[in-house]
Design a protein that fits this description.
A seven-stranded mixed beta sheet has the order 3-2-1-4-5-7-6. The chain contains ten helices and seven strands. It is α/β, with parallel strands linked by helices and 278 residues long.
């Protein structure tokens, strides 16, 4: 068997198993199952659906694995209703050092190149990479910043990131589950790549507030969000649009681009004392 998908790892790491009846699939899950033989592993990896995982593996249903209205932690869309906690990600990295294939995926390679190309400035004084994982993008970004901090929630992931960025003395890493934990200091670049949709709406608002307090006047914010089917609290579009709406009082959209797989939004913080654009 090849590398496990995110959904497979999540299901395997559940503490308690029970031979429950198979719940009905949501429309989103039917789409994922329909496409399971296609070469788009990312669609499955991002789905977060325990039900689809069970169909892929032929395993018993995990207790609490149902999704959809009335299911534990479920919503009318079949998505999780609350922010994913650090244990979710620890379970992912417990079985694979790079479960999203950050280091080898053509999707990630092209997305990183587009993200770097989208930066409005050639160089920054102080950067923040929220959700840095094993540091693949952080390593590419380090040459564009005098100082750069990478945040993640899994200690082993940060060890891998430190090793990868050993030749970047300007990079430091911090264990942090945002928005609850946040580094000191202020930044003229904050990158939030494929992280915001792990948050529920209340925590997304808290993340916006964290960024508002940490962004230097005139600083840049880069949002990157995958657009495929997920069972996270928010879709890629909901996460991006929710952040942009919440940041309207201190930042405005500078550029936006969109591919079939992801969207990339760049915001510019207002200069000190400048009124927000309405």
């Amino acid at each position: 068997m090849g590398a496990l998908t995110r959904s497979q790892v999540e299901l395997r790491n559940r503490r308690h198993w029970a031979p429950l009846h198979r719940p009905a699939l949501t429309d989103a899950e039917r789409l994922i199952v329909r496409d399971r033989e296609r070469p788009s592993r990312r669609r499955l990896l991002r789905s977060g659906s325990a039900i689809v995982t069970g169909m892929m593996l032929g395993t018993r249903w995990a207790e609490g694995a149902e999704t959809g209205p009335g299911a534990p932690g479920g919503t009318q869309t079949g998505r999780r209703s609350t922010t994913l906690d650090p244990d979710y990600f620890k379970g992912m990295y417990a079985t694979e050092t790079d479960p999203w294939h950050f280091a080898t995926s053509p999707y990630e390679r092209d997305k990183y190149a587009a993200t770097l190309a989208s930066l409005p400035r050639s160089h920054y004084t102080s950067g923040l990479d929220v959700g840095c994982s094993i540091g693949v993008f952080t390593h590419q970004l380090c040459t564009r910043c005098d100082a750069l901090i990478g945040l993640d929630v899994v200690p082993s992931v940060l060890e891998a990131a430190r090793a990868r960025c050993a030749d970047c003395p300007n990079v430091h890493f911090m264990l942090a589950a945002v928005p609850g934990t946040w580094p000191d200091g202020r930044f003229d670049l904050i990158v939030i790549s494929e992280v915001a949709y792990y948050l529920d709406r209340a925590d997304l608002a808290r993340l916006v507030a964290r960024v508002a307090g940490a962004l230097l006047p005139g600083g840049d914010i880069v949002l990157v969000h995958w657009l495929g089917v997920t069972h996270y609290p928010l879709s890629g579009d909901e996460a991006a649009e929710g952040f942009i709406a919440g940041a309207r009082g201190f930042a405005q959209v500078l550029t936006q681009s969109r591919t079939a797989e992801y969207r990339l939004d760049v915001l510019r913080g207002l200069a000190s004392g400048a009124p927000p654009v309405r």
